[in-house]
Every structure is written in C-alpha cells, then in structure tokens.
Amino acid sequence: MFNMINIIAIVAVGVALPMNYMLGYPTWILVITACILGLQAYLYYLSRIRKRFYLSRILFAVLSYCFLTLNFFYNSGIDGPTFLCFFLTYIFLIAIFPRKTYWLWTALHIVNVFALLIINHNNPGIAPVTYQTPTDRDIDTAVSFSIMLVLSYATLNFIRANYDYEKSSADKKTLAIQLHNEELEKVNAEKNKLFSILSHDLRSPLNTMQSYLELLSFNMLDENEKAIAKKELLDLTKNTSDLLFNLLSWSKTQMEGVSAKLKANNISEVLTSTINTQHAIASQKDIRFENNLDKRQMATCDADMLQLVVRNLLNNAIKFTPSFGKISISTITNNDRIIIAIADSGTGIPLEQQREIFSLKIRSTYGTNNEKGIGLGLVLCKEYIELQNGTIRFESRPEEGTTFFISLPIA
Asked: How many structural domains compose the chain?
C-alpha cells in the first residue's frame, strides 16, 4: 500500500511540476517541486528496494507536512489547492499507518490547517496570490481537484479491494475449518463405531473360546464333539488373529504414519507364500483355487504391504465363497501398470454397501460358514495400495461374485 501511494505521489508531483511552469511560477518554486519529486522517489527506493519501511513512511509524513505548509505560503494560501492536498495526504496517512495512530494524524491535520487559517487571517497578504489571472486560478483549482479525486479514488479502491480480498480469504479459511471440523467429527464418529464393533466382535469369540475350553477341561464331550470343538477353536482363533492383525496395522497407520519401501519386486515371488497359505485354507471349504500369476512380472511396490493386501483380499474371497466355488488370482499388463486381479464366485457385495466398502462406515458381516468380519481389512488395503502409488477398485454382482483389481507401476 505504501509503495503504491509513493508511486501516486510521484505521479502527482510530476504532473504539478510542468503545470507550475506553465502557470508562470517562480523558478525557486519549480526547484522546490523538483526536489520534492526526487525525495519522493528516494522514499520509494528506501521502502521497496532497501526494505526500510518504517523509516520511509515517517519521512513521508514529515515531508508531506513540510511541503504543504510551504505550498500554503508560496502558492496563494487559502486561494490555492493546499487544503485539497491536506485532505488527500490525510487519506494517505490513514492508509499506511496502524489504526492506533489515526488520532495522531487527525489531530496534526486539524492543528496544522487551523494554524494556517489563523495566521492567514491575522496577517493578510502573508500568502501572496501567485495567479496572474482569475483563469489561472480556476485552471489550477480544477486540475488540482481532478488529480485529488482520481488519487483518492485509487487509494480508497485499493484499500477496499484489499479488504474484500482479506475478507474473502478469511471466509474461505473459516469455511475450510468448518468443513475440516465436520470431517473430523464424522471420522471420530466412525472410529467410535469401529471400536464399538471391535469390542463386541472380540468379546464374542473369546467368550466362545472360554466355553469350549471349559467343556474340554472337564471332559464333558465325546471324541466326535471334541473334534468339532477343536475345529471351532481353530477357526475362532484364526478369525480373531486376523481381526487383531488388521486392527493393529490400521492403528499404526493412524498414529505413526507408514511409509512404503518401494523397490522392484517379482510379483509371483512376493506372493507365493501368501497364496499357498490361503490355498490351504480354501481347500478346507472345497473351493477351487487357481494361481495364474505371470512369474516374470516385476512391479515397483512394498513387498510386506502387498502381501498384507493380497492376504486380506484372498481371505475375504474365501470367507464369502461357498463350498465348491472358485477363486483365482492373475496378472494383467496395461501400458505401464500391472493389474493383479483377485476373482471369486461368492455371494458378492450388496449394492447398498458398495459405495462405502473402503470407508470406516462398516458393519459386521458373516461369510458362507459364518466367518465374521467388519471390513477393516479393505480400509487398510486401500491405504496401503495408495502408499505404493497404486489404485484399487472392484466389480461385484450379488450372488455372482466379486473381482478386486490392484494396479501398481511396472518396475
């Protein structure tokens, strides 16, 4: 703002200099005007180039009062344009100084103007009229008024534009904060719901395990019932272990943040152990399992993260695929991306859940053998795939099956 006012002042004095010459002012007035033009240019240099803003605006105020006082006595006094210049200078000072100093500039202007009026009243002729004809006076007044009006408009318009900009910025920041707070409230509510579901889903299998173990410890079961109980205990332990593993992994990403260790990896080699484990689990439900991974495909990924993602997706596929169904895992090359497709012939994802499948808006679900899950694994899958510069999507039809597609950069 101060730099702009300096430029305006330079333009104003620059216009006044040739006008004073044309109106026939004495040479010494022209010299003083030229000196003021040079000082104004120096103030601009001091503020804009040297960054001495505080000093330059104090000098500007002092120079303004000195110039206007001299202009009053040597440029026709009350008949000249001095008081118009006083008004414009007041606007300038209000614009460039802090609000707490407004009283000072108001007082100085009142004192200065009234002092000049009193001196002029008590000493008639102390400020000689420099106009050679009434026409010269009218021209000077008209030009001075026009310049002051234009400069006042430019200054006030600049102030208003800055005010509107700051107000708009503040409104945008306020709106952003409100939206952020609303989002935080939603996330917090979803997390509360998540932990509520977790507390229930952990307590239920633990109670069941306790009951089975009590029956086993008191030899209250025959051999056939013991075999069934052991199988149920194994399944409960596995499901609870998977749930806790996903919970701990997700909690770690939320509290500490996780960074992917990206490097070139052979997809088949990274996933072999995970696929073999899931294959064995699938065989217990008589599910046909096909591994169609290309053994030559290389992707830029984090091996541990990719194993966790594929393990979760295969685990879900097994959970929601009925006995004698089919699961397959394969790779597709698409330009500079490798796509890992995991398809099943299971129950599919209900349409009302598909839009929120990767969010914390989750609920307990049950597989074809009553295997329990809450969908936290898919939230983790999305976060981990995106950390590897990849994407994850799915296609699903109820009662026909689901296919998840993981896209990763080719190494």
From this structure: 2
